[in-house]
Amino acid sequence: xxxxxxDLKILSILSRDxxxxxxxxxxxxxxxxxPCWERVRRLEKAGIIEGxxxxxxxxxxxxxxxxxxxxxxxxxxxxxxxRFEQLIQNTAAVTECVAVGGGVDYLIKVEADSxxxxxxxxxxxxxxxxIGIERYFTYIVTKTVKRPAQGFDSDDLLF
Length: 159
Prior knowledge:
One of its GO terms (molecular function) is sequence-specific DNA binding. By secondary structure, this protein is an alpha+beta fold. The chain has two domains: 5-54, Winged helix-like DNA-binding domain superfamily/Winged helix DNA-binding domain (Arc Repressor Mutant, subunit A); 58-140, Lrp/AsnC effector binding domain/regulation of amino acid metabolism (RAM) domain (Alpha-Beta Plaits, 2-Layer Sandwich). It has helices spanning 5-16, 22-29, 33-45, 58-61, 78-89, 115-127, and strands spanning 65-73, 94-99, 106-112, 133-140. It has a four-stranded antiparallel sheet with strand order 2-3-1-4, covered by helices on one side. It is elongated and about 65 Å long.
């Protein structure tokens, strides 16, 4: 399916405000309501728009303490990485994890009930011989400056 500038504008707007009215959406992209809404239905039918949802702030529902952790493993082989990554997949408190190059092996975001709960989690990892953590560095989040964008921005597409 080929998308034009109107389609991309529709996607951008709807990704930020799925509750926008048909007339406001049409006005925002300089089309009349009927052609604009036909485009939305076509995007839905093609599976490009999968649905509409609300962004829920989990920190309001259940306050958590965000902690970023740098992890360096003792062994740098496929088995060690696989074993550690499986642990991360099975740890609910870990909400993000990326493997990185340059001094450490992983950056992890932990959403803990408290600093004490975080430390108990790390202590458990350290005493588990098969995990193989060489060292770790803990960074307590004091303020969130910017969150990842939730919306689709057509300017981010590379053509």
